[in-house]
Amino acid sequence: MAKPNPNTLTLSPGVVSTSAEEVERVLQALLIRRESLTALDAVGRAHSSWRLCLLDPDRKYVVVEPAPASATRTLPARPLATFVAEFGGMQIEFTTADPQPSAHAPASVRTGFPKLVVTRQRRAHPRARVRHDFPVLCLVPAGPGAVLKARIMDISEGGIGLLFDSVGFAPAPGTRIAGCRVEMPDTSVLLVDLEVRHARPVEFADGARGQRWGCQFIAPSPQVRALIAKFATE
């Protein structure tokens, strides 16, 4: 039986590869296919569209250029640049550091070579974004008398995306949290049980750090399904 690759960690719902060879293989596929890369802002929203145009053979940097149809030709103003590509029913995500202008092509950007890539199956249920003018909060129990406050960024039948401004730890995939309170502007409250599917750090434009969690509903109630339907139709 083949030994598992020590540079590959299986994390539901995706595979995190830290092998430099595997990272380069995935990036080469994106480069050759001229796949579109969506640059994400600090809270995981789509910001602009890019394409890989150069990989350093010494694996020190990559160069990206704006996709022809992109309305925005700059990356979000932050020390890290996170890109997502979707093809073949899979989602590829990687983060690079220290983006700098490049002379390789007009409006191109040079960034550090990614340390890892995350490969996930595409979501079965597209997530609906929660509007900024309709904030929905989720209070997550964190021990006796303690709660973590998060803003719900998106929601679907599959679950919700949570953004924490000051949480410095990441729960393990599969962690179940009972009795989370979803609070809406109309003062109504829903109780939900969640299972953490993935968590990753985020860095905001001002340098502050937080966490973004992707969570799955556990046996959602009719009230929760009604909330999902509300956002899905708006």
Overview of the molecule:
With 234 residues, the protein is mainly beta. It folds into 2 domains: 114 residues, Roll (Pnp Oxidase, Chain A), CATH 2.30.110; 105 residues, Thrombin, subunit H. The chain is built from 2 helices and 17 strands. The strands form 2 sheets. It has a 10-stranded antiparallel sheet with strand order 1-2-10-7-6-3-4-5-9-8, with helices on one face. The protein is elongated.
**What is the domain tally?**
2
Residue share in β-strands? over 45%
Identify the CATH architecture of the largest domain: Roll
Q: Can you tell me the overall shape? A: elongated
CATH class of the largest domain: Mainly Beta
- Helical amount: 10-25%
Uncertain stretches:
1-13
CATH superfamily of the largest domain: Electron Transport, Fmn-binding Protein, Chain A
What is the fold-level CATH name, i.e. the topology of the largest domain? Pnp Oxidase, Chain A
Quaternary state of this entry equals single chain
Number of strands: 17
- Span of the ends, CA to CA: 51 Å
